[in-house]
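Internal ticket #5521
Category: modeling
Description: The requester needs a full-assembly model to guide mutagenesis choices. All entity lines are attached below as received. Residue total reported by intake: 797.
Assigned to: D.W.
Attached entities:
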Amino acid sequence: MAHFPIAGLIVFPLLGALVSLALSKRWRTVMSFILITALLLNNVSLLFQFYGQGTFNEAMGNWSAPLGIELRVDGLALIFSLMSALVASVCALYACVYLSATQLKLFWPFFWFLWAALNSIWLSSDLFNLYVGLELLSLAAVGLVALSRDATSLAAALRYLFAALLGSIGYLLGVALLYATYGTLSLPELSQHFSLTLSSAVALGFMCIGLLMKTAVFPMHSWLPPAHGGALTPVSALLSALVIKASFYIVLRLWTELSLEIASASAGMLMGILGSAAILWGGWMALNQTHLKLVIAYSTLAQVGYFMLIFPLLSPVDAHASHLAFQGGVLMLLAHALAKAGMFLAAGNLLFCSGQKDLKSLAGLSRYRPLNIFAFGLAGVSIMGLPPSGGFNGKWLLIQSAMLQSQWVWVAVIIMGSLLSAAYIFRVFSYTYREVEGGDSFKQPAAVLEWTALSLSVLSILLGLASMLVLDLLPISAVVAQ
Amino acid sequence: MNELIDLTLICILLGLATLSLFTQSLFRSVMFFILLGLILSLVWIRLDAPDIALAEAAIGAGITGILLLDALAHLRATSNTPPQLLQLKQPRFWLALLSGTGVILALGLAVSEPLSPVVALDLKVSENLAESGVTHPITAILLNFRSYDTLLEVAVLVLAALVALTLRQSDEHPVANEFLPNQLLHACLKLFFPMIFLVSMYLLWAGSTQPGGAFQAGAVLASAFVLFYLVGLKTQLAQNEHYLKRGWIFGLAIFVLVGAVPLLQGQPFLTYPDAHAGVLILLIELGLTLSIGWILFSLFLLSQSASTFQKKDTP
């Protein structure tokens, strides 16, 4: 049964989608949770398989690349697959309680297609297959945003759709050019023949712009805040924690597989500048929002900037510093996924209590729902990058790498970004500590909602204590030029 | 002679594209867009890609055209703002122009280099064609060598229908449908429907040896469904959301099941046993044809809310 765990990552979510479209209400929920359990077990068995035999490939339909499509299980893919399994299952539990029956009916199939798309992207080592995965992901995400049926969210969903389509077209154009140049779509094979000619530079340029648009990197970000801020709470958590990571993951894959840090130092520099702008702009905008969910959405924008700092720090000369930057970046991605999902869920609970979106309506909540504020705060610790959180370790590794290479600008940017994030998170807190005149009338959220939010926030802190456990999965040679 | 044909096609293509972008009335630009699809399918034939030509004619010009016309009628019925014309003062117009020119220039630069693919994938395809169960290379790639891509693509189609359903449920202006109770149309349809169905099944069957296949057959089938709907033959199937959804997932379910059975026998996902590859591919394609036809029809069906206004708006 050596083929099972890896195929299960695709088959189970697709089965989930089929089941949730075909069955009646009760069976839909029961089967969904059975399949979620199966997927979690499946991830664990894949982890053990990876410990047993290391990195391995799986040829779909027994046709090996370049004729067929090969999936690849390596440390990076495994980390992302585990991350999405954790976040998605907690969000599913939250959604099951939080959403109404009619919303759930559409939520489940979208959720399952989203998960299938994520897994297909983590595992794929084929450029066109990645495109198909991206399409599946974007459509599922757009559908999820459209679930909240007010006019502004529909407009946000449509805007998101256009941005995502434009990004896909850019990526596809690049893939077509690369295929015309090298005659293969398989990423490992491409990296053997790759050399930075004019046409491949243009191709990679198109691909990167398209993918960065889908990740909402600074100048192409304006679709993100309304979409993430306006969606239903569990959807916001899924989108911010997982969906934007997928397109970034492909950029990271391309960059490391094709050893672009050797080919072009200025490209890395450009990515770093975009990232820095995102950190500062996102932080500043988050500080000026009046709606709680928009604060968190802009905070995502800033956090994406930190991921971008990986690229200027990957250097062909200093293997150790590059490795530190890579590890730091991956840790930031993970910590952000856990913390941001936890933060959105906690924020959703707070908004549920007050019934309004405004920050001012939070007044008095810190006494009424201390557990929830605690969950929000723990997630905030990781976002700000205070020890002992995953966010702290990630930033620490990035700073260390920058100092080793004496690239002081990035150190300054990271520190300024952390100050900004501390400012916008404490600003939210200060609203919750205000007292209201004349009694408050809050609704009480179900206990499950509070505990799910707390569990993700706690995980983001635990990640700081168990960072090495995760980072050991990454091979030392992941970055060092092949 | 051939160069002359190519040059004419390119000129027509560019002309139609410009017209459909810059013409004043939206109805005309949709018409030009449909024409563009037809000419594009001719271009695909000139490029030796009859499969894509078929798909382009059926989906690009056919179903997309229907959907665009439908959206247009809907727009006219519900919005009272006239379509906005291009305004030269707007910075986003110049941004679009600038980035468009940039993309064209970059593409021009990229293809100016001589292309000499290192890996000859077409040779590998013809080497392995005998084991794929079909003799048409495109079908072999789509449903055997790269069947995993196709599986995910089918999931994308189901998802598209699902998004349409979601948007439909948040539509605040459901308008009662009015059909075209035309005796002539009824009579024609009686004559045409068996033929359309036959063409669809032929495309499906032919797919294993020559251009054709599930996507083209599905698109043809969808057009038959749309015609049926327009003359007012309501099917019970289309009214019930359960049947609607089960129709969408039928093809995907067959595909996943056929792909997952080898897992139990210790083979990788989507491996077909050599002896039955041809039959299994045909089975999957049959399921896909029905589902694709149903999904494309559903996209049309779900956007139906303003057909009452269609007649008086037609110029």
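Resolution: model delivered.
Comment from assignee: Residues 399 and 411 of chain A are 6 Å apart (CA to CA).
Ticket closed.
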